[in-house]
């Protein structure tokens, strides 16, 4: 509060002694930025350097779109200055006209940026995909403020890289974010996947003779379709699978490290004390499963299965 009063008092003294004033420019100004500050449209007379810097950084308004004009009324300047410094003498025209200089980004550059991102990030080989640009936006260029242009895809963007994909391309002007333009694609993916060669029962582990590889358009197939033979290792079926069915990960579960009724080891940790004992599993146990175990004294405990097949209990 004291600092604000001091600045206000200083402005009044400077204005009185040195006839300090803000002079709005009376000719059309050309800018290439998206925000307009007082220093863009005015000169300062009779102020010290620190005050000139503070006045210059007073935000006035957002600039118009590139290629259009922005009008700043003197009244707006007076209100903005008064808010921070009180009444200061302001001379010049009743309004300042600013022409926002524009640059153009060719849409092919946006497409190239998005397509390069797809090819670098997608899990497919280039000979497995057909990438087609969808002409949703008919404009051949995007108007932006004049300056050094940088295009890049939004960092936290995620997609499965198949089917209809919309890539958000960020536009930076002189290293400052300006806007996002989207580019739409249709990505067709053809991959080798697997289908069953016979009717398979629940809880079976598949052998090589139980599956057949087929090359198929997987664009609209579920994301958990099995694409590598190795994915079936150490898996068993959750339920019966009919002959000719395409295999999905959701149809399988890992082979239990132990079965219900098996005798298992327990590790019970209480603060800094760790005790090992044994009990009877009351359910199948897979890595990270929560399983109940009945001890020899009939007490039942619940713990998480580790990779060694032991049940870990922490209290």
- The CATH superfamily of the largest domain turns out to be eubacterium ventriosum atcc domain
In the CATH hierarchy, the third-tier topology of the largest domain is known as eubacterium ventriosum atcc fold
| Largest β sheet strand count, sense and barrel closure | 5 strands, antiparallel
Query: What is the approximate shape?
Result: elongated
CATH class of the largest domain: Mainly Beta
Under the CATH scheme, the architecture of the largest domain is: Sandwich
Helix and strand content put the structural class at: alpha+beta
Q: Supply Rg.
A: 35 Å
Distance between the termini: 55 Å
Helices and strands in order:
Elements: H1 2-18, E1 21-24, E2 29-31, E3 35-37, H2 38-41, E4 42-45, H3 49-56, E5 59-62, E6 69-73, H4 74-85, E7 90-91, E8 95-100, E9 102-106, H5 107-121, E10 129-134, E11 141-145, E12 149-153, E13 163-173, E14 176-196, E15 211-217, E16 235-237, E17 252-254, E18 263-270, E19 273-281, E20 290-295, E21 300-305, E22 311-314
Parallel strand pairs: 1-7, 2-8, 18-22
Antiparallel strand pairs: 1-4, 3-5, 6-8, 9-11, 10-14, 12-13, 13-14, 14-15, 16-17, 18-19, 19-20, 20-21, 21-22
């Amino acid at each position: 509060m004291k600092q604000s009063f001091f600045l206000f008092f200083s402005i009044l003294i400077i204005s009185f002694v040195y006839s300090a004033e803000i002079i709005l420019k009376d000719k059309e100004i050309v800018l290439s930025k998206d925000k307009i500050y007082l220093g863009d449209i005015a000169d300062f007379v009779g102020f010290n350097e620190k005050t000139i810097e503070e006045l210059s950084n007073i935000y006035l308004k957002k600039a118009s779109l590139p290629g259009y004009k922005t009008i700043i009324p003197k009244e707006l300047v007076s209100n903005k200055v008064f808010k921070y410094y009180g009444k200061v003498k302001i001379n010049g025209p009743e309004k300042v006209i600013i022409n926002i200089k524009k640059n153009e980004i060719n849409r092919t550059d946006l497409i190239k940026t998005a397509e390069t991102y797809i090819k670098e990030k997608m899990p497919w080989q280039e000979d497995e995909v057909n990438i087609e640009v969808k002409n949703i936006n008919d404009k051949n260029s995007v108007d932006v403020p004049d300056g050094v242009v940088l295009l890049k895809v939004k960092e936290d963007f995620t997609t499965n890289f198949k089917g209809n994909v919309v890539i958000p391309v960020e536009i930076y002007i002189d290293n400052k974010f300006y806007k996002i333009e989207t580019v739409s694609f249709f990505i067709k993916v053809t991959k080798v996947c697997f289908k069953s060669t016979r009717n398979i029962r629940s809880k079976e582990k598949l052998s090589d003779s139980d599956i057949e590889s087929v090359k198929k358009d997987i664009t609209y197939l579920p994301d958990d379709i099995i694409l590598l033979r190795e994915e079936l290792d150490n898996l068993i079926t959750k339920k019966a699978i009919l002959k000719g069915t395409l295999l999905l990960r959701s149809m399988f579960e890992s082979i239990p490290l132990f079965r219900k009724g098996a005798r298992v080891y327990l590790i019970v940790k209480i603060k800094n004390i760790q005790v090992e004992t044994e009990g009877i599993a009351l359910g199948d146990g897979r890595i990270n499963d929560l399983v109940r175990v009945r001890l020899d004294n009939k007490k039942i405990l619940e713990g998480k299965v580790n990779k060694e097949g032991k049940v870990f209990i922490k209290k």
